[in-house]
């Protein structure tokens, strides 16, 4: 019974570890300097 618990725990760790590296920290932001970012913008552009 104890071996089954250990094996289950190890299987959970092995399956969860690759998922921990996915994603990025923080909220997304557009690349480049803030004064040159043109998005989001309305469509059609104002004349």
Automatic annotation (TrEMBL):
Region: Disordered, residue numbers: 24-47
Tree of life domain: Bacteria
Full protein name: Uncharacterized protein
Organism lineage string: Bacteria, Pseudomonadati, Pseudomonadota, Alphaproteobacteria, Acetobacterales
């Amino acid at each position: 019974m104890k071996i089954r618990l250990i094996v289950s725990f190890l299987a959970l760790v092995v399956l969860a570890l690759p998922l921990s590296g996915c994603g990025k920290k923080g909220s997304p932001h557009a690349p480049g300097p803030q004064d040159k970012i043109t998005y989001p913008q309305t469509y059609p552009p104002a004349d």
